[in-house]
From TrEMBL:
The keyword Signal does not apply. It is an enzyme of class 1 (oxidoreductase). This is oxoglutarate dehydrogenase (succinyl-transferring). Keywords: Oxidoreductase, Thiamine pyrophosphate. The lineage of its organism: Bacteria, Pseudomonadati, Verrucomicrobiota, Verrucomicrobiia, Verrucomicrobiales.
């Protein structure tokens, strides 16, 4: 039976599905199961009518007719399935092609059908609810749904509910009123606003770079269609991220930034209103605006962005999650529906940048999900001068989005009505399922990469076609006049009104410029910071508060079974330190700092790879029941009105996760936001975020952040890969008090530095070289007296040794981090009484006055040494040498490893030899 049915159905897919169904009816989708049940029932009825197996009637024409009908229905089902799967491959999505090439796999002959079957009734329960139709009507309907101006990719989605919802919306869209939710006049206005804005800038500022949206004006249709439907969809805010292509257009026509300000930014005499920092080019700037709509208001925020493509994606997602927390959009009832992230991509960048895949992978992770992102791809079909054939190995630029089973809509960018439908579909999908969705808008770039670039050098044929092509605005305007939607006078009035407003804005700008009144050029969303201050900040806590936090950290609920190691060693060690007031280690100090901030109303967030336990099993911010794996977060149980504590193990990414946490720090400034690298050198993978955002954002965009980066660093003889957090790279980026870089030696210093992040009137990123071996080193502990009220962080720490005759000290060794303990140990072993060791805990901003003050107690010191574990061309030497030399007006001597291309040796024996040599050198030069 099985083989005969498969032969009659004559379709590979049906063969496969029927085999599956015969083996296990539950293994196939519901619609397939229903079909095969009906098929079996029909076959059984045919046999019953035919009588006994050996009767002549079993081979009558009626029986054969029924079997042929069933086979025909099977072929029709296969046809429908294949259109749903492959219809997009022949959709009319490319405006530069007069006709899309047909896919031979969708020819009737591929399904055992022919033109002679077109008049046969082909209704099936699998297309438009079983509506009766002929095969030719079915083919026409499938073409209309799946091979018109939108190509749909959704059959890769495993979730049956999601897939069926999408299919129903697609197949019913042409049976609904197409005029619903579509206003042709308003859509024309959106297009003309975009088109005329670019044309106006091109005329007034000839040759100026603006990275225009010309050829991709449909983006404004997508954005505005989403925006107008936000209030009815319960969306209160949009967090927007995009690169420079079309950014000025989005700033003006979507966020409604002041036209006079945008025009002024093109003038030769433009000076940013905010004089602090260096500023940035106009098409990198961010902006915020509350848009008043007919049925509500929506807050819009466009993240500032460097030219590094796709780098802003993770930052935008982090900002969105922070806003969701702030407005209470992270609860069960709202479930992240009220803040919508929208990311705008270029086709070449979406396919080429690895950060895209990393950010997509964030979408459903507990610590990073934002309720789904709408991705708009402005598919110019070229990347600078590179054509798609040279830019990607996939059929579409969007194929990477299939990794998270996002539905993908390929849309013709010159069909405004389809653009509106796609935008509303995307918004509805996102709000219903909380998942990402991609709209790939096929368009073109009318200009070159910028307005001074000649695109015809490398694409003469394509740009010859583009030059002859009417603009979208003029083409759509003509269509509306021709079909009677607008009269010629009405259409011209819309266009003239837009142009007049542009001219009016330009004249206003020129008048203000002549008068010297720059106060009217508003539009900056910068947050200027007070000057950096070395002033001490009281970051200690009351003793009873410290003990309350400590007791909470060393308690678990009744019946909760701790792992034996934690129960016998970890928790008792903390309890003993708390009771004795001595021996508080690094991780305990960290948790005490967090606890204090939580009780004071500051939320705390830590994310990174395996950071809940800690790379070195030092933290245990989460306890797991050893029998059930139930989780218990001690720091979530300090008091009923405490702030929220979150700690998340991230996926194996640095770029996306650091960018996300940086964005979170921007959106939620009251929170202590922290990112931890599993090992310090892992931050290499996030260098773009460090360079483009963390170190320079305040100077470029006046966007302050207090993000903390924890980078395990230290030379323990474990090889080159995980020894160095590349301290030198961070120090090279330091200028204009842009961030703080430290390498601490005591847990108390770490405690105070974390709390200091939330106790000053300015915000700066904090980059910490955190220890590895010091986490458990017996000497690297602090007393509870170092944490109490009245104590604070110290940028430079004095020598702990008591010198009976400080006048005998003739050498001061400066160092930072772990090597301090090795220096102290070596000094004791050789009985040295003439060398003092000062610790530069905060390398930047450098506190020169404190260095002088602590050095002054050794009036006869004439030799100054910098000692480090890192090779001479790495670590802090190149940075600190000129600073110390200026402080003492003296030569600073170097004790450390020689220059090297690799951070450390792979031989433990060689490491020990080098370490011994640099310690000896520190006390002998």
């Amino acid at each position: 039976m099985k083989s005969s049915v498969s032969a009659r159905l004559n379709a590979d897919l049906l063969d496969e599905k029927y085999e599956q169904w015969c083996d296990d009816p539950r293994s196939v989708e519901e619609n397939w199961s229903a079909f095969f049940e009906g098929f079996e029932l029909g076959s059984a009825q045919v046999k019953q009518k035919g009588g006994a197996a050996n009767s002549a009637s079993s081979t009558t024409g009626a029986t054969n007719a029924s079997e042929q009908d069933l086979a025909f229905r099977g072929k029709c089902v296969s046809l429908v399935y294949n259109y749903r799967t492959l219809g997009h491959t022949q959709a009319q999505i490319n405006p530069l092609l007069d006709e899309a090439p047909r896919n031979p796999r969708l020819e009737l002959s591929q399904f055992g059908l022919s033109d002679g079957d077109l008049e046969r009734e082909a209704s099936t329960p699998f297309f438009r609810g079983g509506k009766k139709m002929k095969l030719k009507e079915m083919v026409s309907g499938l073409e209309e749904c799946y091979s018109s101006k939108i190509g749909f990719e959704f059959m890769h989605i495993h979730n049956t509910e999601v897939r069926h919802w999408i299919r129903t919306r697609i197949e019913n869209r042409f049976t609904e009123s197409q005029a619903q939710n579509f206003d042709a006049e308003k859509t024309l206005k959106w297009i003309l606003e975009s088109e005329l804005f670019e044309s106006f800038l091109g005329k007034k500022f000839l040759g100026e770079k603006r990275f225009s949206l010309e050829g991709g004006e449909g983006l404004m249709v997508l954005l505005n269609a989403v925006l107008e439907n936000c209030p009815s969809s319960n969306v209160k805010e949009i967090e927007l991220g995009m690169a420079h292509r079309g950014r000025l257009n989005v700033l003006r026509n979507f966020l409604q930034k002041s036209l006079t300000t945008i025009l002024y930014e093109f003038t030769p005499d433009y000076v940013p209103a905010i004089v602090a920092g260096d500023g940035d080019v106009k098409y990198h700037l961010g902006y915020e605006k509350v848009r008043q709509l007919a049925d509500g208001e929506v807050r819009l925020s466009l993240a500032a962005n460097p030219s590094h493509l796709e780098a802003v994606n993770a930052v935008t997602e982090g900002k969105a999650r922070a806003r969701q927390r702030i407005i209470g959009d992270d609860g069960v009832q709202t479930d992240r529906k009220q803040v919508l992230p929208i990311l705008i991509h270029g086709d070449a960048a979406f396919a080429g940048q690895g950060s895209v895949a990393e950010v997509l992978n964030l979408s459903q992770l507990p610590g990073y999900r934002t309720g789904g992102t709408i991705h708009f791809i402005v598919n110019n079909q070229i990347g600078f001068t590179t054509m798609p054939a040279d830019a990607r190995s996939s059929a579409y630029a969007t194929d990477v989005a299939k990794m998270i089973e996002a539905p993908i809509l390929h849309v013709n960018g010159e069909d405004p009505q389809e653009l509106v439908w796609a935008a509303l579909f995307a918004l509805e999908f996102r709000q219903k399922f909380g998942r990402d969705i991609v709209i790939d808008m096929y368009c073109y770039r009318r200009q070159g990469h910028n307005e001074t670039d000649q695109a015809a050098f490398t694409a003469p044929h394509i740009y010859g076609k583009i030059a002859k092509r009417k603009t979208l605005g003029q083409s759509y305007k003509s269509n509306l006049v021709e079909n009677g939607t607008l009269t010629q006078a009405e259409a011209d009035a819309i266009q003239n009104s837009i142009w007049d407003k542009l001219e009016e804005g330009y004249q206003t700008m020129r008048e203000l410029e002549k008068e010297g009144d720059r106060s009217q050029f508003s539009g900056s969303t910068a947050e200027p910071q007070p000057p950096y201050s070395h002033a001490a900040v009281n970051t200690g806590l009351k003793l009873e508060t410290l003990k309350h936090i400590g007791q909470t950290l060393t308690s678990v609920p009744e019946g909760f079974t701790l792992h034996p190691t934690l129960a016998k060693r970890f928790v008792p060690r903390r309890a003993d330190a708390l009771n004795s007031g001595e021996g508080i280690d690094w991780a305990f100090a960290e948790s005490l700092a967090w606890g204090g901030l939580l009780l004071e109303g500051h939320p705390v967030r830590l994310s990174g790879q395996d950071c809940r336990r800690g790379t070195f099993s030092q933290r245990h911010a989460v306890f797991y029941d050893n029998k059930t794996r139930d989780r218990y977060f001690p720091l979530q149980n300090l008091s009923e009105d405490q702030a929220k504590f979150c700690v998340y193990n991230s996926f194996l990414s640095e770029f996306a996760v650091l960018g996300f946490d940086y964005g979170y720090s921007l959106g939620c400034p009251n929170m202590l936001a922290m990112w931890e690298a599993q090992f310090g050198d892992f931050s290499n993978g996030a260098q773009v975020i460090i360079d483009q955002f963390i170190s320079s954002a305040e100077s470029k965009w006046q966007t302050p952040s207090s993000l903390v980066m924890l980078l395990p660093h230290g030379y323990e003889g474990m090889g080159p890969e995980h020894s160095s957090a590349r301290l030198e790279r961070f120090l090279q980026l330091c200028a204009e008090d842009n961030m703080q870089v430290g390498n601490f030696t005591t847990p108390a210093q770490y405690f105070h530095a974390l709390r200091r992040q939330k106790k000053r009137n300015f915000r700066k990123p904090l980059i910490l070289m955190t220890p590895k071996s010091l986490l458990s080193r017996a000497e690297a502990v602090s007393k509870i007296d170092d944490f109490v009220d009245g104590t604070c962080f110290q940028e430079i720490l004095p020598d702990d040794k008591v010198f009976s005759t400080p006048e005998k000290v003739d050498r001061i060794v400066f160092c930072t981090g772990k090597v301090y303990y090795d220096l102290v140990q070596h000094r004791e072993s050789i009985g040295d009484e003439s060398t003092a060791i000062l610790r530069v805990e905060q390398l930047y901003p450098y506190h020169e006055e404190m260095v002088k003050a602590l050095s002054s107690q050794f009036p006869n010191a004439a030799k100054f040494v910098w000692c480090q574990e890192e090779p001479k061309n790495m670590g802090a030497w190149s940075f600190i040498n000129p600073l110390l030399a200026d402080t003492f007006d003296a030569r600073i001597r170097y004790a450390g490893r020689k220059e090297a291309s690799s951070p450390a040796t792979g031989s433990k024996a060689m490491h020990k030899k080098e370490q011994k040599a640099l310690l000896e050198e520190a006390f002998s030069i």
